[in-house]
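Reopening this one. Same input as before:
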Amino acid sequence: MYHQITGLLTPGEADKLKNMGKPDAISSDFSNELLQKVAKRYQSMVDDQEFILSSPSYWRIETRPKGHEWHYDGCKLIEGEFEDNHMAWCQFGTTVLLSDPDEFTGGRIFFEIDGEPKEVKDHYLNGVCYTAGKLNNPMKHMVEPHEGKRTVLLMFFATKPVSQDQLKG
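Same output, byte for byte:
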């Protein structure tokens, strides 16, 4: 399942996030007030699990021109069965587009729904939160390659409790 959160950020907040840290660097420090605001809004979409706002959860500002091929975040599908991957701890993934769509071409995000690709519309300043773990109906998704300046805030959340088996992934 995935949910879209409209009005997650203002253009000014998106600009602040674009300038946080090094692009594509991973951070488990959620102490920034703006990051906490975003994480709290995503948490409000999930009633039955509590996000961990420290390692192994992390966030990153991403500017990846080659996009992402179809994948799951917290698992992989092998011969019809979900198995752990390197992010087995990840139960929820999130994304919010920080760049105005006029700044780039391509870069559309899709989720597989009932075997068909479904494009996420109105991604700019609006968050998307989706299930990612092998036991919570993980969402397969992809991002097209792009040209220009496309920047997103990605957050990947472990939830309480995290088993030692998940951390091995």
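So the earlier flakiness isn't reproducible anymore. For the record, Residues 74 and 88 are 5 Å apart (CA to CA).
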